């Protein structure tokens, strides 16, 4: 719901742009896209994984199994509950910030630019590069360019992350069985790593279920679009743990840079398809009540934007995904 409002608003409201030209839609602003598109990919991943959890539940009930003994289902549901809650909080906060307050960042940028208005553009860019640039140590592993852009590479990466953390189970077993250490103290000493393992497991399952859902999509156009979002989700998972992968020499600095570039390309290329995806969620307008999203609400205590937003008819003309999400 929050994404629907924020994305519709971003595709209709215009602010800033080239001098002496029409202002651009705020979805064209890089930071707006970078903050909203990953959340949309996560929403899709959680949708398909929740369906997978529902399928497991139906199978266990149909076979008469005791749900309390279904370890796979319990682990999956517990992981999804925590993961979806955390992501929901982050998503709503980003959506709230993306529908207002961006002028603060613009003003800070303008003030910073005034300090260098006498310098050539090259000197300004060089100053920025020198202040934030650093050289990453290259590991002995190397990956081809095509490898990083492949979904199979992303799946292998998240699987490696999870399997490596599983070694902590052996560490706890060693402490308990060999050193006769109290189980609670052994477990508590590894709690940070166990929490990381739980999250890595949830990431792996969600990416796998997302990829399986894409492969089973009957419509070719929808499958192509969903594959892009699946790549975005997988790339984000690897990118956010890039320090861990570099530390364990799974990635080279070159591969890490390629992953970052791929993430930027996917974010920007999917911004125009976001309206198709949120339309497929089929959220009734009666549940939106958001003038900033182009949907009037007589009970709203704030007025609609002075600048006209996109008409409902214009949005409905966009091609929707073949299946409801």
TrEMBL record:
Q: InterPro entries, per this entry?
A: ACOX_C_alpha1, Acyl-CoA_oxidase, Acyl-CoA_oxidase_C, AcylCo_DH-like_C
Q: One cellular component GO annotation, for this chain's record?
A: peroxisome
Every copy of the Acyl-CoA oxidase C-terminal domain together lies at 158-293
**Cell membrane is among the record's keywords:** no
Entries under Pfam families matching the protein: ACOX (PF01756), ACOX_C_alpha1 (PF22924)
Arranged from A to Z, the UniProt key words for this protein are: FAD, Flavoprotein, Oxidoreductase
Q: Where would I find the Acyl-CoA oxidase C-alpha1 domain in this sequence?
A: 3-102
Q: Which cofactor does it need?
A: FAD
Q: Which domain of life is it from?
A: Eukaryota
Biological process GO terms, please?
fatty acid beta-oxidation using acyl-CoA oxidase; lipid homeostasis
GO: which molecular function terms?
acyl-CoA oxidase activity; FAD binding; fatty acid binding
Q: Which family does it belong to?
A: Belongs to the acyl-CoA oxidase family.
Descriptive protein name = Uncharacterized protein
């Amino acid at each position: 719901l929050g994404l629907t409002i924020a994305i519709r608003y971003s595709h209709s409201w215009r602010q800033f742009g080239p001098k002496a030209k029409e202002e651009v839609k705020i979805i064209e602003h890089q930071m707006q896209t970078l903050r909203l598109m990953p959340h949309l990919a996560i929403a899709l991943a959680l949708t398909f994984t929740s369906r997978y959890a529902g399928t497991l539940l139906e199978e266990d009930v149909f076979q008469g199994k005791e749900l309390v003994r279904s370890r796979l289902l319990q682990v999956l549901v517990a992981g999804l509950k925590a993961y979806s809650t955390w992501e929901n909080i982050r998503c709503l906060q980003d959506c709230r910030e993306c529908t207002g307050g961006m002028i603060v960042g613009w003003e800070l940028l303008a003030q910073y630019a005034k300090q260098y208005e006498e310098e050539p553009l090259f000197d300004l860019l060089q100053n920025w590069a020198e202040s934030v640039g650093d050289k990453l140590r290259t590991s002995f592993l190397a990956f081809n360019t095509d490898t990083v852009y492949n979904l199979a590479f992303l799946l292998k990466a998240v699987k490696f992350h999870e399997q490596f953390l599983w070694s902590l189970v052996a560490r706890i077993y060693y402490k308990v069985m060999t050193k006769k250490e109290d189980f609670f103290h052994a477990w508590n000493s590894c709690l940070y790593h166990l929490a990381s393992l739980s999250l890595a497991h949830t990431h792996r399952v969600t990416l796998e279920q997302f990829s399986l859902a894409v492969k089973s999509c009957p419509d070719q156009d929808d499958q192509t679009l969903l594959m892009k979002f699946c790549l975005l989700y997988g790339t984000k998972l690897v990118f956010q743990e890039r320090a861990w992968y570099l530390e364990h020499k799974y990635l080279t600095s070159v591969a890490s840079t390629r992953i970052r570039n791929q993430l930027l390309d996917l974010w920007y290329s999917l911004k125009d398809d976001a309206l198709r995806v949120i339309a497929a969620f089929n959220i009734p307008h009666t549940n939106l009540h958001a003038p900033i999203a182009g949907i009037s609400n007589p009970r709203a205590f704030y007025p609609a934007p002075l600048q006209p937003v996109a008409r409902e008819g214009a949005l409905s003309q966009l091609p929707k995904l073949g299946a409801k999400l």
